[in-house]
Amino acid sequence: MRVFHSPAAPRHDPEQYWRRGTPIPHPEQAARYAILRDAAVTGGHALAEPGDHGLDPIRAVHDRAYLAFLAEAWARREEMPGIGDEILSGVFARPHMHRRPAGLLGLAGLYMADTSTPIRAGTWPAIYGAAQCAVAAADAALAEGHAYALCRPPGHHAYADSAGGFCFLNNSAIAAARMRAATGGPVAILDIDVHHGNGTQGIFYGRADVLTVSVHADPSDYFPFYAGYADETGTGEGLGFNRNLPLPPGSGDAPWLEAVEAGLAAIAAHRPRGLVVALGLDASADDPIGALKVTAAGFAGAAERIARAGLPTALVQEGGYLCAALPENLTAFLAAFDAAR
Ligand SMILES: [Zn+2]
């Protein structure tokens, strides 16, 4: 398994996160990069850098003005008197407030859904590098059968024009769009992160050519709260091409794997030419912000089932936070995937 990683990943280093009204150390820490990379090396997988495929594959799913904001915000920081180490708004645009302001603080509130995505000195190089890993893994999956993109920060909560949930650029969506363009045929995304892949769903909600399937904890009392319900099935041409499989909090391996199998059955019926797996590892029983009880054996079971689908597969890292089980779950997943291929 080739492992695409970007040495710029740790340059995005958010410090603080508001959880349930209390500031805590940000869960999406730079240390995740080295832990996941070292776990992949320990598992015997070969590291590769992604090269630079430019902005075009990112523009395939993201709004240009949003990308310009992300790329230029840090250089504009002196527009905000008294700014510290990060650009972060405490004011957010709501659907009924939709004017685009000129100032940087207002733009931050326009383009972010919450306070989890501060822009810091190294944020753009880190998120750009992660997106390049997704592009490289999509290309490698089509050429070689499969590849893993060690994307950090993650991406599946990012919409075409907004950051949120630790995510800026939707790496899984970028990989899927890349596969769609290269194959000319339909593709599919299977998101097994514990959180619903709301950004990915939003990007492809009106499209029939990219089937989006998400297995996640019930959002009725869990992030992302406002999307991820079973009755969200797509719109217009995309009707029937979005599938949400929410699980009750605390669900373990058996119901989780059953949902993964149901997702794979929907994907097989779509006859895709490529598959992107949004590989969150935060469904783990040990994850500090998780809500399910999946074990290393569960992750291995999912990997086996996904590998047996026999599709060109790009594995794109999503969530999974600092705990002893994090590297073990990645190693278990990659080993089982390789063994089943
Ligand atoms: Zn997650």
From TrEMBL:
<dbReference type="GO" id="GO:0046872">
    <property type="term" value="F:metal ion binding"/>
</dbReference>
<feature type="domain" description="Histone deacetylase">
    <location>
        <begin position="26"/>
        <end position="336"/>
    </location>
</feature>
<dbReference type="InterPro" id="IPR023696">
    <property type="entry name" value="Ureohydrolase_dom_sf"/>
</dbReference>
<dbReference type="InterPro" id="IPR023801">
    <property type="entry name" value="His_deacetylse_dom"/>
</dbReference>
<dbReference type="GO" id="GO:0040029">
    <property type="term" value="P:epigenetic regulation of gene expression"/>
</dbReference>
<keyword id="KW-0378">Hydrolase</keyword>
<comment type="similarity">
    <text>Belongs to the histone deacetylase family.</text>
</comment>
<keyword id="KW-0862">Zinc</keyword>
<dbReference type="GO" id="GO:0016787">
    <property type="term" value="F:hydrolase activity"/>
</dbReference>
<keyword id="KW-0479">Metal-binding</keyword>
<feature type="region of interest" description="Disordered">
    <location>
        <begin position="1"/>
        <end position="23"/>
    </location>
</feature>
<dbReference type="InterPro" id="IPR000286">
    <property type="entry name" value="HDACs"/>
</dbReference>
<dbReference type="InterPro" id="IPR037138">
    <property type="entry name" value="His_deacetylse_dom_sf"/>
</dbReference>
<protein>
    <submittedName>
        <fullName>Acetoin utilization deacetylase AcuC</fullName>
    </submittedName>
</protein>
<dbReference type="GO" id="GO:0004407">
    <property type="term" value="F:histone deacetylase activity"/>
</dbReference>
<dbReference type="Pfam" id="PF00850">
    <property type="entry name" value="Hist_deacetyl"/>
</dbReference>
